[in-house]
Amino acid sequence: MLLKRYYLDELKDRIRETDDAVFEAAGIKKEALLTDEGLMDRLWTFYQKNVEEYDCDEDFSYGDALKEVLNIEL
């Protein structure tokens, strides 16, 4: 799968729009997450794969990526 920058940008926007408390409850600082290339790559891959390959909507795909990579439930 070829990763498309559009999905990473969309994912970052969604993370920024999510309440800080969601991440803090899991011991994660939002700004640290956004600058962690490894975690962002994993989130990006899950997010894009759900949207493109499994035809899931963006809201579900975002929540699923957070759950799979960070064990965060929305």
Number of helices: 5
The helix-and-strand class reads mainly alpha
Count the strands?
0
- Which stretches are poorly predicted, pLDDT < 50 over at least 5 residues? none
Percent range for helical residues? over 70%
Computed CA radius of gyration, to the nearest angstrom = 11 Å
Q: Name the shape in a single word.
A: globular
- The average pLDDT is 98
Order of helices and strands: HHHHH
Report the span from N to C terminus.
Answer: 26 Å
Largest sheet: none
Q: Report the β-strand fraction as a percent range.
A: under 5%
| Count of discrete structural domains | 1
Model description:
The chain has 74 residues and is an all-alpha fold. It is 72% helix and 0% strand. It is built from 5 helices and no strands.
Write a concise synopsis of the structure shown.
This protein is mainly α and 74 residues long.
Core attributes:
single chain; 5 helices; mainly alpha; 74 residues
Q: What's the arrangement of secondary structure elements?
A:
Blueprint: H1 5-17, H2 20-24, H3 30-35, H4 37-52, H5 58-70
